Amino acid sequence: MEFHHLLEKIVQDGFTHAKWLNTLSFMENAGARKISKCEHPVLVTQIQLKHAAEEHRHAYYLKKQIGKINPELCKTYESQELLAPVATRQYLHSLDIKACRYLQEAFQLNKEDLKYAAYLFVTYAIEVRADDLYPVYQDVLTKVSSKIMVKSIILEEEGHLEEMINQLNDFSADWKKHADHVLTIEKELHEQWMNAITEEVAQLNYA
Known about the structure:
With 207 residues, the chain is mostly helical. It is built from seven helices and no strands. The chain is 79% helix and 0% strand. The longest helix is centred in the middle third of the chain and has 33 residues, at 111-143. The model has no long low-confidence stretch (mean pLDDT 93).
């Protein structure tokens, strides 16, 4: 199912839409936690702190939007409150593991440097995806005159992507070659995630 069409189906049903918002919130929170986990014990940059804080804020913002549908829905990240919970939990985790494996081979890094490289390349891949995902979602929300909006997230994610590119330029002159490899890994995992959500939404709509 094409992504725009999938979102149109999701926003038609309040509970499904709440689960989608909660799923995005879970992803943003997981991303924030991964950024924090990648921090050096002492050499923490201001930009890393900014990214972690903003991803946490996105998680909170998305969770808060659920209240516009029904404040009693999706209060936690338990499996029954997420769309395709298994694929959702595996997506970022698998991307992190596979990207680390590739980056270790490509750069032969020590533990702390590998964590920093993973922060750069994995966050870059996620920001590229966010730059694609959130505008389509906002288009669908606008089309159905929803009270829910993600415009503020779109603006911040665009800023994040620019900041990641600046950091990657400092990290390696040929970063684009390696980033393309990580993007290929992310694309496959994203497709698996979307397929799992599509399958679940189809069952909900035709049950």
